[in-house]
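[09:14] KT: can someone run the structure on this one? pasting the chain below
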Amino acid sequence: MPMTMLAQAQPGLTRSLAAAPAWAKVAAVLAGTAVLAASARITVPMWPVPMTMQTYALLVIGALYGSRLGAATVLAYLAEGAIGLPVFAAGGGLHHFFGTTGGFLLGFPLVAFLAGFFMERGWGRTLLGSAAGFTIAHLAVFVTGVPFLAGLIGWDKAIALGFLPFVAGTVVKTGLAMATYEVALRLPSRRG
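[09:31] RB: done, structure tokens below
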């Protein structure tokens, strides 16, 4: 298949989950929250804060699970963290929603929803569409995170500390998510 044209259909996992019984969807949500928790522990040392692989995981979960189940999975993950389970990069607890990472956490469901939304509508059929869909979805975390951070430290610092250091990582993680989605499209699906 040429690099300019990606697969024409949603991956088998997305189709299977849409028609799956409730218990399978619950299992997928639990697996997704485990992936998100693990991705929070994968860090790349950066200043002022380390970069995690969470947004990569958000993009992949959204694209593979679909917009609704992807967003529901992320909401379950945030609930786990809010009640104190150590699923965030710095542990767990409600206080994470009120500190410097609060706005970014609140944007997580939007990232997964948008990734699923765009892939469900066929944006993943071409390289350009896939890049646009994943990039827009990924940038959504900054739409909520940077203004929230600005309310705490001011706009100049919020942009300098909460956006600019993460541009390169955003490009890399978006590309990785696109590649992961493309691999998932090529996997054979089980049809019963």
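[09:33] KT: thanks! The longest strand covers residues 43-44.
[09:34] RB: yep, looked fine to me
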